[in-house]
Write a structure and sequence with these properties.
Two copies of one chain form a homodimer. Chain A has 445 residues and is of the alpha/beta class. The first copy, chain A, has helices at residues 15-26, 38-46, 55-59, 72-80, 104-116, 132-138, 149-162, 177-205, 210-218, 225-234, 246-263, 268-282, 294-297, 314-342, 347-355, 362-376, 390-407, 412-427; strands at residues 8-11, 31-34, 50-51, 64-67, 95-98, 123-126, 129-130, 141-145, 163-170. The N and C termini of chain A lie far apart (60 Å). Chains A, B: It holds the Pfam family NAD_binding_11.
Chain lengths: 445, 445
């Protein structure tokens, strides 16, 4: 049966790309794949794909090219560098969907390079994805796509094939807007991945049963999508399976802090996470699952001699762990929303995307609307505060920080979050005495 | 020859206490020492001291007691706990000089305990010291003494025997004020000790000759007293001699952050340092010299694969190291001065003490007066700005943070300092567009 579906070139068949490309094969597309790692191409052929030996060969006569390499450097190499680069070989008017997570600045630069190379005809789509390898293979990713209207229209069917119908976000703002949307989502990811290790490491210092601690968190206001997905791997004796390497979230983290520096925006939470990721990398944990960073947190457990904990019961100890996470999630939500506002993104779209994706947390759901209202208006009263009072969250967080200090347990994110709430209180309007916790968003400016 | 000098009891003959007590012996005092570690008492006898087997025995019939134990817990034990405690055995009207570094809250509580035990007659002096073992033995310490006028008068000669004439600070505010003064000084110490490791670890990632880097820093605006004293030990192959253990500065660091939490004051710099100290403790570095924390910073060097540094020349790389330190010292100065203002200390005295003690740095000297002027007035223009523009310091710091990110080198304090300057810029008055760097102090409230 001859397919009326257009042929697709797919560059980059890693954990995500392989699933995405294979899904397109299953949907009846003829997909020509390219990857630098030859065994992957053999696997792809076994799944019904075609294999090319260069990017140029892959895209020859293809009206659509999906690029899912790991970094901006790799995207630049396969698209534009050398005689086997894809772009010169693309037919005129072809669509290029860049699905890699790259800095906004890179994809905007790529658009300029296409124009400079007299290939402004190419319909570039800035379309980073989220959701992990399973959803990639299932065609149910979240996709954040920014591009010209024409490029979006040309590529919409393909974006739909790869995404969940409810999770295809067309982001206003053209090229760069998709990457910015992904980036602000990753503020939550970067902090909440590490918060899982931090909270469980703290639970270990407290002498808690970690499985019980994890179950308690998941049933509490300290829960997050990341905690639910990372905690089983953090508690696996060998941190298995390696579902997402530390180097991957570190790459996204560095995109956030570098883009923030470029626009002069402070990212105290994400920068703290980045420093801990660097420490993990230095220890040689880069290739390991990111949940394995719990090793950085429980290291001193029991070494510092007998310490009298003030929290004696399991219930009291579990409350400290939940209080720690609530404080961290409050501040990661604030950093995400304040950064999104600074970048001019549609905050309602940011919020909807984040609560339905890997960045979701109970705190974000509770405080997000108030935070959005606070950064949209200037100095006006909050919209509809739904979260706990700031004092209540701060008090829970402070109890956790007090106890961690007593146990000499590092809690980088929790300590940072507490200081941020203090800075927020130092700068909040005098009229906001009984503020709800969303007011912390004002510390970012 | 019979001495007309009063007999002294001296409790706690550790690295500092031994030198202080021995100095008093040399000055002609009859000093009765007590320490839980018996060999120390033998050494003290060899130096001409007398030895007691309990605190109570040491203080019997002594009108003066100096207490130089390591912690508030130890002070409480030797002064008040059990049948051999010192306080019940002290003659009426005796002076107790508590020279240990303890929280303000503890020494104020001690004053209340004395009153409750019907020993309000004791002339308590809150007199923490600074300067290290050499100056202790030399009788040239810095001493920050807070007490009633009567207690100060009674003890002045003894404070003078132990201190440099120019470095005896009588701190207004009574019991607790001396400890607060020491504490705000230790904000600088806690950050600048760690900054030495951070800067030299960064220099290692940059591929610099570390001795040359240290020499350059010492001749630059990135210099500090701590850097001068720590860098030789950080560069010693075995981090020798062990002049000050990591556990000691960690103890002081935790006093700062705990007291700050008690009054709701944010300490983003010191809290960051504390988390790194906890990490070092977890690695087993607690008993080692604090300069050995450079190990936490250079760990990943060379592991992350070839990275193209943008700084190619030694001169450019050295400038990055200096830029890093200037940024950190700017923010540690801000945290010190803002905290001192919050505690109601005499800022001129704080500044004079700090620039002449272990907390001194070129940045503090340059920006301290402007910072003091900014926190004293409310919203008014700065007094006499002497430092670089904020933009200049931030730009140097940002280049260092950019390069560290490229090298995947952790720089916890530098990253935090950069974010604080960004937060400061977000909150500074619109009229302060061309602000000098001291304006960063406003971020604390």
């Amino acid at each position: 049966m001859a397919s009326s579906k257009p042929d697709i070139a797919f560059i980059g068949l890693g954990a995500m790309g392989f699933g995405m490309a294979t899904n397109l094969v299953k949907q009846g597309y003829t997909v020509t794949g390219f990857d630098v790692w030859a065994p992957t191409l053999e696997r792809f052929k076994a799944e019904g794909g075609l294999a090319a030996t260069t990017p140029a060969e892959a895209v020859k006569d293809k009206d659509y090219c999906v690029c899912m390499v790991a970094t901006a450097q790799q995207a630049q190499a396969v698209l534009l560098e050398g005689e086997n680069a894809a772009v010169p070989a693309l037919p005129r008017g072809a669509a290029v969907l860049l699905c890699s997570t790259v800095p906004c600045s890179y994809v905007q630069e790529l658009e300029k390079q296409l124009a400079a190379a007299d290939r402004g005809d190419i319909q570039l789509v800035d379309a980073p994805v989220s959701g992990g390898a399973y959803r990639a293979a299932d065609g149910t990713l979240s996709i954040m796509a920014g591009a010209s209207d024409a490029a979006i229209e040309k590529s919409r069917f393909l974006l739909q094939e790869m995404s969940d119908p409810a999770k295809l976000y067309i982001v206003a703002g053209g090229i760069g807007a998709g990457s910015n949307m992904k980036m602000v989502h990753q503020v939550l990811a970067a902090n909440q991945i590490l918060a899982t290790s931090e909270a469980l490491g703290f639970a270990a210092h407290l002498g808690l049963d970690l499985k019980k601690a994890a179950d308690t968190v998941i049933g509490s206001q300290g829960k997050s999508w990341m905690f639910e997905h990372r905690s089983p791997r953090a508690l696996h004796p060998e941190f298995q399976p390696i579902a997402s390497a530390t180097t991957i979230i570190l790459k996204d983290t560095s995109i956030i802090t570098a883009e923030a520096r470029r626009v002069g925006f402070p990212t105290p939470m994400t920068s703290t996470a980045e420093q801990v990721y660097f420490t993990g990398l230095g220890r040689g944990y880069g290739p390991d699952d990111d949940s394995s960073l719990i090793r950085l947190y429980w290291e001193g457990k029991g070494k510092v001699g007998p310490v009298a904990a003030t929290a004696q019961t399991d219930e009291a100890k579990l409350a400290l762990v939940v209080g720690l996470l609530k404080g961290i999630h409050l501040c990661s939500a604030g950093e995400c929303i304040a950064f999104a506002a600074r970048l001019g993104l549609d905050l309602d779209q940011v919020f909807e995307l984040c609560i339905n994706a890997a960045g979701g947390s109970a705190m974000l759901e509770a405080v997000g609307p108030e935070m959005m209202s606070l950064v949209k208006t200037t100095g006006a009263a909050a919209g509809s505060p739904a979260g706990d009072s700031l004092d209540k969250v701060v008090s829970g967080l402070q109890e956790a920080v007090d106890e961690a200090q007593r146990l000499k347990a590092p809690i980088f994110l929790g300590s940072q979050a507490l200081n941020l709430t203090r800075l927020a209180m130092a700068h909040r309007p005098k009229t906001a005495a009984a503020a709800t916790s969303g007011v912390v968003v004002k510390v970012w400016g």
